Amino acid sequence: APLSTVARPWTSGADLALCGMEVPISPTGVATGYPAFGTLPGVVTALANSGWDGCATASNHAADRGESGVVATLDALDAHGLGHAGTYRSRQDASVPFALYELERGGRTVTVAQISTTMDLNGLEDPTGYSVALNDVGAITKAATSARAAGADLVVVHSQLGEEYETTPNDKQVSYAQSLADSGQVDIFFGAHPHVPQPAEKLSGGVKGKGMWVSYSAGNYISSQNESYCGPLSDVGQLVWADVTSHADGSVSVDKLNWHPFTMDLAGGHKIRDLAALHNGERPAGLSLDEEEIERRWSMLTSDVKDASTMSTTPPKSTGPAPTIPSREEVIKRARTHLDPPGTASASSSPR
Questions:
Q1: Interstrand relation of 252-265 and 271-274 (parallel, antiparallel or unpaired)
Q2: CB-based burial of residue 318 (10 Å sphere; 0-12 exposed, 13-18 middle, 19+ buried)?
Q3: pLDDT at res. 229
Q4: Summary count for the chain: helices (H), strands (E)
Q5: Tens-place pLDDT, residues 149-165
Q6: Which region, left, alpha or beta, applies to residue 240 given φ > 0 means left and ψ of -120 to 50 means alpha?
Q7: What are the CA-CA distances from residue 179 to residues 135, 142, 157, 305 (Å)?
Q8: 350 or 295: which carries more pLDDT confidence?
């Protein structure tokens, strides 16, 4: 329920809404907390019901519940028709490390590829060696190139890295983002892991030298984190979305990144609240945040991290039908058609 109220116009209004799935679904049906997290399938149900189309599943907690947790997460996403990238059931599945989403717009199909990776697994071993994709600019470049060959017009990368609770991206984040931009294969990069909002910018490089947009961290969307044991703004996040233009010549361009802030109201029932609306005087039923707390969170966000004048004040508006999400089998088939052209022995050209 908390996922499907205030934020729904913003998620369902996007032509394609992709989330970052920080923790796996518990394979036992019992939720677990730190240090080995496991959430319940109802989270995925709520995501599907509130307008999300897919999730990036590679995170430093992706292996917390072992291989069975990876599979349970993918099973839950599949059961609700959500796409996913970043974790995989098999070596064959992992050999095609991207998901595809198709949007019918202006008489053509615009295909978006999603790639998801993480910096580490908190000291755990990948139970299989292929279950969770790790940050590797070379591997991401190869995956993006393969995705374009399989029909992608736009490549979106979601990677976890950075320092937790730091509102300024560190040198590793900036260098990593610039390396992705320099690859010439990535259109948009969404960073995660700091658990607090960070800025966004357009870097040099990008596809055909047109630049690459990066959001270093959107912060938390829904969580139990707060300042008592994390850091300032750990209970504040942004929805970040891109304006993309499909051109008559078949190319696409990313025009800008937009953002709008939300915050968790833990004492009010663990609900997501629109922070900008609260700042503007809205007071929904059951709100536990008082005037001083609302303004404190707003001030920290807009004075230290974001420029309020760049904030979007209205939800995105869908420009056409919901995306079609090709199955994993179909995505693998498309990728292999490119990797194994007619007359080529598959054994000699299979992906590694």
A1: antiparallel
A2: middle
A3: 85
A4: 10, 12
A5: 999 999 999 999 999 99
A6: beta
A7: 12, 13, 12, 23
A8: 295
- Whose tokens are 């870097």? That residue is 203
Flag the least confident range among 2-6, 29-33, 79-83, 118-122.
Answer: 2-6
Integer angstrom CA distances of residue 27 from 17, 31, 99, 280: 26, 9, 23, 43
- Outline where the chain has alpha helix (H): 8-12, 42-49, 66-79, 91-94, 137-149, 171-183, 275-279, 291-304, 328-339, 346-349
Torsion of CA 144, 92, 138, 19, to 10 degrees: 60
235, 270 contact by CB (below 8 A):
no
How many residues make up the chain in this entry? 352
Residue with tokens 């040099």: 204
What's the pTM?
0.94
**Cβ(289)–Cβ(268) below 8 Å:** yes
> Is 90 exceeded by the pLDDT of residue 213?
yes
User: For the residues 247-265, what does the mean pLDDT come to?
Assistant: 95
Across 20-24, 109-113, 117-121, 348-352, least confident range:
348-352
Bridge partners, 264 (sequence order): 272
Whether residue 350 is predicted with pLDDT greater than 50 in this model: the reply is: no
Residue ranges of E strands in the chain: 18-20, 54-56, 83-85, 99-105, 108-118, 154-160, 188-192, 200-203, 212-215, 236-246, 252-265, 271-274
8 A C-beta contact, residue 166 and residue 197: no
Cα–Cα dist 35/232, whole Å: 22
What is the rounded distance in angstroms from the CA atom of residue 261 to the CA atom of residue 67? 35
- The residue type of 330 is E
d(CA 131, CA 123): 15
- If we measure between CA atoms, which residue out of 195, 114, 129 comes closest to residue 161? 195
Q: What span, in angstroms and rounded, lies between the C-alpha atoms of 335 and 125?
A: 28
Q: Which pLDDT does position 343 carry in this prediction?
A: 46
